[in-house]
């Protein structure tokens, strides 16, 4: 897995990702404690609303940012967005009202809506070999897992000597360090794409995504991940401090257990994905999430909560890690930024549903009922994924292009108007060819 770090460009980008994630992890812990300070036992409702605002920014702005990104130098765009995020994070320790939290979260995540999919779409160009890219995906997942594990532990250690607003300073340092590391490398320029209107560029990724069967299945799996993840992120502070009567440090330890489970799966997956396709571990991970949530009402102690969060973290990573492989093979190189942005927007649309639901249901019906409601949503996503992405789905499909002239380069490459090859949705394949068969 570590062999891909021999590539200096990827090594610097990976370091930038890790440092920024640690800073973001500190902000996650601090934001939960800030919500508790402002709203007390209604912290879950405040935090759920704040995170819903974050999702609105992601869903609305990621496709627009993708349409702009293919016209700008990637390095300039990434550095500028890191600096914007650092500037907003400076203001977070000084908020005293709930509405201030909401405004700053929107501004911070508006910048992230442009940064993250652009960063993700750059990695396949830096590592064009599929084996290298697969290892990079596992490393990236491991980076998220380490953030989930180490950031809460670091936060717990810091909270023994400083108050929680200081944690936001770590977020600022992380974004500044990320910008500095991106400045040290030369990034591949976006591949030239056909001239299209802003509207077409903005919607192209989502249209191509929804026209691809395995990506429709991925969207259903995103719902499973969002249902379980929202329960963990929104309500851990409420479960630990209001339900179990424990302190801030135990909130960080509970979140660390989730990160440990996710990291364990990330370490196992590279060899697993060498021997099997992406679908089996992703479906298994979603099943773990749906089933695990049913045990939530039985949690009555910190060790029990830690064990459940460990299991959910494992299922979370099983489902999430192979996502980049699906996206990469579902788009032409020039369409990758758009398809990554579509995944970013659509997956966060699922979080837009589950974040406020986790906070609102927790405050209205109690945590036990909230576990069961979100378990039902996760189960619904799993069933939809099984139907939308069947196990026998193939992408090397016989089809024909009766509308192309005989000398077209695509026909010349494949020998005839009726042929077969791995299909991706693009200008030549606007619909998935389920039934079309060659006639000659």
From TrEMBL:
Q: How does it sit in the membrane?
A: Multi-pass membrane protein
Please indicate if the UniProt record lists Transmembrane helix as a keyword.
Answer: yes
What subcellular compartments does it reside in? Cell membrane
What molecular function terms (GO) are annotated for this protein?
A: transmembrane transporter activity
Q: Where is the Major facilitator superfamily (MFS) profile domain?
A: 9-393
Q: Which domain of life is it from?
A: Bacteria
Provide a GO CC annotation, any one. Answer: plasma membrane
UniProt KW keywords: Cell membrane, Membrane, Transmembrane, Transmembrane helix
Q: Does the keyword Membrane apply?
A: yes
User: Transmembrane segments in this chain: where?
Assistant: 12-39, 45-65, 217-244, 250-269, 281-300, 339-363, 369-389
Protein name, UniProt field: Predicted arabinose efflux permease, MFS family
Q: Which organism is it from?
A: Roseicitreum antarcticum
């Amino acid at each position: 897995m570590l062999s891909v770090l021999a590539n200096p460009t990827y090594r610097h980008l990976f370091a930038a990702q890790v440092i920024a994630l640690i800073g973001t992890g500190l902000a996650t812990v601090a934001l939960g404690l800030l919500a508790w300070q402002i709203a007390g036992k209604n912290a879950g409702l405040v935090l759920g609303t704040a995170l819903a605002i974050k999702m609105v920014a992601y869903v609305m702005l990621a496709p627009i940012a993708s349409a702009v990104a293919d016209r700008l130098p990637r390095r300039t765009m990434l550095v500028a967005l890191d600096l914007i995020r650092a500037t907003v994070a400076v203001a977070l320790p000084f908020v005293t009202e709930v509405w201030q939290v909401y405004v700053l979260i929107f501004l911070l995540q508006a910048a992230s809506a442009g940064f993250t999919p652009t960063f993700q779409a750059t990695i396949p160009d830096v590592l064009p070999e599929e084996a290298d890219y697969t290892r990079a995906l596992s490393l990236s997942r491991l980076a998220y897992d380490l953030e989930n594990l180490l950031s809460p532990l670091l936060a717990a250690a810091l909270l023994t000597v400083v108050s929680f607003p200081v944690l936001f300073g770590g977020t600022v340092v992380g974004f500044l360090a990320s910008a500095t590391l991106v400045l040290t490398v030369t990034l591949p320029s976006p591949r030239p794409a056909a001239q299209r209107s802003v509207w077409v560029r903005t919607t192209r990724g989502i249209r191509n995504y929804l026209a691809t069967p395995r990506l429709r299945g991925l969207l259903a799996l995103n719902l499973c991940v969002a249902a379980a993840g929202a329960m963990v992120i929104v309500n851990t502070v409420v479960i630990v401090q209001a339900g179990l009567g424990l302190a801030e440090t135990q909130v960080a330890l509970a979140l660390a257990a989730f990160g440990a489970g996710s990291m364990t799966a990330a370490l196992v997956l590279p060899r697993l994905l060498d021997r099997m396709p992406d679908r089996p571990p992703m479906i298994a991970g979603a099943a773990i999430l749906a089933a695990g949530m049913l045990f939530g009402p039985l949690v009555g102690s910190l060790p029990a909560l830690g064990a459940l969060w460990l299991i959910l973290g494992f299922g979370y990573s099983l489902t999430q890690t192979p996502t980049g492989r699906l996206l990469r093979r579902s788009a032409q190189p020039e369409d990758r930024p758009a398809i990554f942005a579509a995944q970013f927007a659509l997956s966060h649309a699922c979080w837009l549903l589950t974040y406020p639901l986790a906070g609102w249901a927790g405050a209205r019906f109690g945590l036990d009922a909230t576990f069961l409601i979100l378990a039902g949503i996760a189960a619904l996503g799993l069933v939809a994924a099984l139907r939308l992405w069947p196990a026998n789905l193939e992408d090397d499909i016989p089809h024909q292009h009766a509308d192309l002239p005989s000398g077209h380069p695509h026909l010349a490459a494949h020998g005839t108007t009726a042929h077969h090859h791995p299909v991706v949705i693009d200008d030549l394949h606007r619909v998935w060819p389920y039934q079309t068969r060659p006639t000659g």
